[in-house]
Amino acid sequence: MSQKRVYTFGNGQAEGNATMREVLGGKGANLAEMNHIGVPVPPGFTITTDTCNEYYEVGQEKIVELLTAEVDAAVAHTEKLMNCKFGDPKNPLLVSVRSGARASMPGMMDTILNLGLNDEVAAGMVEKTGNPHFVYDSYRRFVQMYGDVVMGLKPENKEDIDPFEAIIEKVKEEQGVVLDKDLSVESLKKLVELFKKAIKDQTGQDFPTDPKDQLWGAICAVFRSWMNDRAILYRKMEGIPDEWGTAVSVMAMVFGNMGDTSATGVCFSRDAGNGENLFNGEYLINAQGEDVVAGIRTPQQITKIGSQRWAERAGISEEERVAKYPSMEEAMPELYKELDALQDKLEKHYHDMQDMEFTVQEGKLWFLQTRNGKRTGTAMVKIAMDLLHEGMIDEKTALLRCEPNKLDELLHPVFDKAALKAAKVITQGLPASPGAACGQIVFHADDAEAWHANGHKVIMVRIETSPEDLAGMSAAEGILTARGGMTSHAAVVARGMGKCCVSGAGEIHVDYKTKTVEIGGVVYKEGDYISLNGTTGQVYAGQIATKEAEVSGDFKELMDLCDKYTKMEIRTNADTPHDAQVARNFGAKGIGLTRTEHMFFEGEKIKAMREMILADSVEGREKALAKLLPFQTEDFYGILKAMDGCHVNIRLLDPPLHEFVPADDNVQGQKDMAAEMGVTVEEIQRRVHSLHENNPMLGHRGCRLGITFPEITAMQTRAILTAACRLKKEGCDPHPEIMVPLIGIMYELKQQKEIIQRVAKEVFAEQGVEIEFEIGTMIEIPRAALTADRIATEAEYFSFGTNDLTQMTFGYSRDDVASFLPDYLEKKILKADPFQVLDQKGVGQLIKMAVEKGRAVRPGMRTGICGEHGGEPSSVKFCAKVGMNYASCSPFRVPIARLAAAQAAVEG
Ligand code: ADP
Ligand code: MG
Ligand code: MG
Description:
Layout: E1 6-10, E2 13-14, H1 21-36, E3 44-47, H2 49-58, H3 60-82, E4 85-86, E5 92-93, E6 95-101, E7 111-115, H4 119-129, H5 132-149, H6 163-175, H7 185-203, H8 211-225, H9 229-238, E8 246-252, E9 263-268, E10 280-285, H10 290-294, E11 300-301, H11 304-314, H12 318-324, H13 328-331, H14 333-350, E12 354-361, E13 364-372, H15 377-389, H16 395-401, E14 414-415, H17 417-422, E15 425-428, E16 430-433, E17 436-442, H18 445-453, E18 458-462, H19 470-475, E19 478-481, H20 489-497, E20 500-503, E21 508-511, E22 516-519, E23 522-525, E24 529-533, E25 538-541, E26 546-547, H21 553-565, E27 569-573, H22 577-585, E28 590-595, H23 603-614, H24 618-642, E29 647-651, H25 667-677, H26 681-691, H27 703-708, H28 710-729, E30 735-740, H29 746-767, E31 774-779, H30 782-786, H31 788-791, E32 797-800, H32 802-810, H33 821-826, H34 843-857, E33 862-865, H35 873-881, E34 886-889, H36 894-907
Parallel strand pairs: 4-5, 17-18, 18-19, 19-20, 27-28, 27-34, 28-29, 29-30, 30-31, 31-32, 32-33, 33-34
Antiparallel strand pairs: 1-2, 1-3, 3-8, 6-7, 6-8, 9-10, 9-12, 10-11, 12-13, 14-26, 15-25, 16-20, 17-24, 21-22, 22-23, 24-25
The structure holds adenosine-5'-diphosphate and magnesium ion (2 copies).
């Protein structure tokens, strides 16, 4: 079968287009599209993502065979458009070989520039351009990249600097210069030789001289980079499937390093940090693409306003700025105008904020990439709302543009203003990714992971970050780097993760060997606390107090838009009035789950609770329960009041009783308890022992407690309804729902319901008022789902307890799953942890069936979810699709669930 593997582009034409990102990767599809809309792009071709998958099936030799004819033809196409020839010393074509997956994975895979150079080609290029510095600068860059990416010459230890950088440092020292760009032609030639020698010494292989060999080596290396550790980790974090593969784009080089009329840069059509509608970016004169992001030279700003803001932060005077660090707008005004017009064109074409790469070769502007830019949660919301106001997108699109989980950042605490004023600024860097972070200093990615795993909050401090640092960055609260601009790796990745980042803090001196950083004359060690303000770029010594975020401005507008479209309400899981209030502020419309057991642990309550458990007669228990009653009534009063006017679903006692008494090995606890209660230690131990169960999660818990000890159900009902009656008398509007947990058999519910109704009558008579309330159940045992039609004859509503339902459907103990889950994920038996992401195929089927069966008996019956899944976007969407009335989640996930629910409605 002849299958098309290669798609060409150039000169305003292309075989692909923007809709083909699955085939051509995002980069390849957009390179094609830019040709169609008149944006200047160097010609080239893209090899499909499927070919990458084929590579993994058939291997290098076979894939080269399969590709040869098409690649040869595509190279010829590029040669024709560029009017030069690959490998021809007199008139050579050089190319870049670039990775690019369906979803953008910035910097995770490899790219090689200046490919096609060897000694002869270099000599020929010198002749042609008369610019030996440019030629040997390109050559040494090529050998360096190829040696690293294709031939695998890398640092051996994490403390070591890159072997190529080590050689550069040595040669610079010999020549007596500081900056790479000041290296002489002789030094550059020497670098090429030293690099090749180092590669040979360490890998045993000669550097390939035939450009064709170089090309195949690079193409296959890019395929391989799909499976490098950092790409795998990035995919795991972003939920990108391994099967997608990367495309490979090969394109003619354009050179930003040909002298002072050449430059390279990265720019954004809006601010990726705060969303401001302001074109911005960074560029470097006489440099190549990687230089801007690698953080080796500090880049200059593209726009004048950006440059002025930058100078102000850095404490640089206007005269000095203009003389030493002019913006592109000032230094290359004509080109700037062209760039500005094209960025605007691209944003209008894609209807979204663009992240673009460009190069100027001797006064001519070329675009090398455009993509929908990564952004922080704050920027995501502002940009969506701004685009909506500007009429570029409609309301539904605006909702779909926002990623629910990214709202998390907007809910994080911010520095307390007063505490911030009192804190000491120790240095200033660039505000690379906003937010407040404080933690202990660590210097290496693996340390960040290890410290984090041990429960520490850490700030990762680096000279600069590289894609290898991904896992560490993810584990850190924030990132501080000495080098690198607003488009450096650290900045881009941090913004994508929503991590606070301060980059380019030039005054800090990091020493990896001693694990110290010197800032303003003070030495900070690993483990010392610092705080970062990613919104201003300021760095503080020690820890600074934070306060809770609030929903306002664009965020509020987005949330209002959610309410306009959603078909499902979001409630919260809350056990205290404070949590209920927090959730209400985030837009919760009620409580989906109040766990009463948490209320028994404080002070006097636990004593009364233990007394109840210890009692061996109904009278004894009732006496103890009578002590608990006022506490419970107070608790419910507080919660019902905080949620006045809204439904509050209260679950009766659920956990096994042994959780309330001192365990077998806690002899001191048992002694204290004995003294407290005036009985012998033996008595306590006997009772503790009798509560022991082999499998408590499947034991005496949930409604089984209420069946054995009806007086517990009675006391809790009395507390709930007494509190509600009191509130009603005070002019409030309480709506309690009483939920019986862990039902598997209809009669369990029927009997519990009788108790609840009997007590309700008594309370209403005593209080002289009646309130409306409902009695429902949790569906969390598979049998309950299977017999939902029978259970619905008694239950007035269903609440899906998906934690237990998942546990019992899979037969996985939630507390023990960690021992094998990683293997299941690794071996792809499971796609995700079913306790985090609802298993729609299995558990979901039970839910869907129960909703339908329940409503068949009780039309329009209210259903909701209250497990952990109620705050996870894909699970929330599933609940919306099966027609649930509400999802309930922890207070800080309420906005996330609201957005997911609205998206489900829009997606239909
Ligand atoms: P990444 O995905 O890591 O950004 P890219 O493939 O975009 O990798 O390339 C890295 C850098 O090299 C970018 O700055 C890009 O603009 C530059 N670059 C890639 N191809 C060319 C080319 N043909 N000419 C000039 N610069 C290029
Ligand atoms: Mg790029
Ligand atoms: Mg449960």
